[in-house]
Design brief:
364 residues; 17 helices
């Protein structure tokens, strides 16, 4: 019994030394007249809790070495696949980081912080993470059955824009996909203006009716309206026929793609989603006004402009800042009951900015 205990102590001490990276091996001496009980305290010192950190560091370093070799091999032999692989790895890192930040924000809200009092970046993080999660959820459900993950990889490779969230897009894909999404959104500009012209016939106040028609005609003719011209018709967007809860279902279906929302839903669901997104946008604008445009980085500034309806990748930073400043002038003047006008500003302010599109592109 004492022999086995001595061997155990010797092996544990050897493991402990190896775990700390030492090259020195200390041989223990066995004394037959010493009882096993006297050796038990040294045995207890070399427990697994002290061996584990060194072993974990060793395994971790070997995994990092193997991963670096694997990435180097892919980069040399399969550069296109390496780009996809690297994008996915970095995407998962960023997604995990975003999830951690969202959990921190949610914890603060549970402790009593209200949503409308959140800083702009926290509010934008919650909004974007929720949208990304909703888009990724169907893909996760598809991958649940056995061996279905192989099908998912094929789908992700051939349909990255439709199935993947921006975390897993390459930099080139991000620019390309934003251009595609904006072109789909821009196709609705003239349909929304036509619908507004038809709806203006229901306005009983002759002056407001004329102001709305003039505003639509100005945008259709390729001009950029002034903030005062937009705010002159604000009262039409708080009640019938253009209030957020008083619009016709057909008009709501024309507006939904401006926010990248599907129009293929029942009318009451479309109205509820438009109202929710419009109020969220208004709160974001108020948080951004508190922060100040000068506090945004170039990437944040472009993202803020793109989310509000303009293709910011084709503009300079000064143009983005000027446009967003104009948007905030309108937004800061609106009440919660007038958020419908904020949705229509996606057309009023961005359709012709910074210059009018060609007649050929409008007809296309």
């Amino acid at each position: 019994m004492s022999l086995s205990c001595a061997r155990l102590c010797s092996r544990l001490s050897l493991v402990r030394l190896c775990g700390h990276g030492s090259n020195i091996i200390t041989h223990r001496v066995y004394f037959p007249n010493v009882s096993c009980q006297s050796r038990c305290p040294p045995c207890r010192r070399f427990t697994s809790s002290k061996v584990r950190p060194g072993l974990v560091r060793y395994v971790s370093s070997r995994i990092q070495w193997a991963n670096a070799k694997y990435e180097s091999f892919l980069q040399r032999r399969f550069p296109r696949f390496f780009l996809l692989y690297h994008t996915f790895v970095e995407g998962f890192k960023q997604l995990f980081k975003d999830a951690t930040e969202v959990r921190r924000i949610k914890t603060r809200m549970l402790l009593g912080l209200k949503y409308q009092d959140l800083p702009y970046r926290d509010m934008e993080k919650l909004r974007q993470f929720r949208r990304d999660l909703m888009k990724a959820l169907p893909l996760v459900v598809i991958s649940i059955p056995p061996f279905a993950n192989y099908l998912v990889f094929v789908l992700m490779y051939f349909f990255p824009r439709q199935l993947l969230i921006p975390h897993f897009w390459t930099p080139k894909q991000q620019v390309e996909f934003r251009r595609v999404y904006h072109s789909l959104r821009a196709q609705r500009h003239w349909l929304v203006l036509k619908s507004l012209e038809n709806t203006s016939q229901q306005v009983k106040n002759g002056q407001l009716q004329g102001s709305l028609k003039d505003l639509c005609s100005k945008v259709q003719n390729g001009a950029n309206p002034k903030v005062t011209e937009i705010l002159a018709v604000r009262s039409l967007f708080s009640g019938p026929p253009l209030g957020i809860r008083r619009m016709s279902v057909d008009h709501m279906r024309q507006i939904s793609p401006l926010l990248f929302l599907t129009p293929r839903l029942p009318g009451f669901l479309i109205g509820r989603r438009l109202n929710s997104h419009a109020l969220e946008l208004l709160q974001l604008d108020r948080a951004l006004s508190r922060l100040g445009l000068h506090q945004l980085s170039d990437a944040e500034l472009r993202q803020a402009c793109y989310m509000r309806g303009i293709h910011s990748d084709s503009l300079g930073i000064d143009q983005c800042r000027a446009w967003l400043s104009q948007w905030l002038q309108v937004s800061s003047s609106l009440k919660a009951s007038e958020v419908s006008l904020l949705l229509h500003c996606i057309v009023f302010l961005s359709a012709n900015y910074p210059k009018a599109p060609s007649r050929h592109s409008q007809e296309a």
